Amino acid sequence: MDFELANALARIVELKDRSTGAHTWRVTMYAQAVAEAERMPVATVMGFMLGAVLHDIGKMDIPAEILAKPGRLTAAEYETMKSHTVLGWERVQRMGVRDPLVLNVIRSHHERIDGSGYPDGLAGEDIPIAARWFSVIDGFDAMTSLRPYRHDVGEDAAARAIEEICEHAGSWYEPRAVEVFETLHRTGRLDSILEHLNDREGHASLVGPLTPDAMDLARNALMDSAKDVADAERITAILDSRPEDLR
Length: 247
Ligand SMILES: [Fe+2]
What we know:
This protein is mainly alpha-helical. It has one domain: Hypothetical protein af1432, CATH 1.10.3210.10. The protein has helices spanning 3-16, 23-37, 42-54, 64-67, 75-82, 84-94, 100-108, 129-144, 155-167, 175-186, 191-194, 212-224, 229-239. The chain binds fe (ii) ion. Fe (ii) ion binds at residues 55-56, 84, 109-110. The site of fe (ii) ion has 5 residues, from loops.
């Protein structure tokens, strides 16, 4: 899968999950910064970034009222929310994605080193390394971005987020990934990405507004990935939901 299609798909997910705003854009830029700081091979950098773009694609399968709920989720709603990992992992495979790096980020980005994460409750090195690294990024962005339940963001929030991530190094997060991310933050190399924190409209994206071609590409890929009639209807509803945002 190329970045144009992946970005279009991520934008479509954001149509449904408005609260994430430019979340996808930011985590992908953070992923690039981390991968380059670690001097990962180019193919690994690209795979890691593609995993970042697509990591929450399964949210298109989660009811909008759960995604947008301002208060605490009930236990049942939380179980449904958690399934975005496996649903996304399944959907991109129906789209032909085979790169384990990309698939691992999508399925396992909510796992924790101590085994308390989801969906598989994996622990330590059983969690694929790309997912261990990405969860630091996703955690940081979750703690520093506007959400239905969070309105305090900015540099203070970033400092607090780094503190919290450092506290959980070795329990939730891969220590080496925490170290790299903390250094990038301390040396100001994440600042230009952080500046996009308050894009309440969620219009920041990797390649700008979706072109009609990108939209067609995404529409075809999504319809091809439909597993049954109900799924195809759900996809159609999302695609038709806010056509003005796709221009
Ligand atoms: Fe997620």
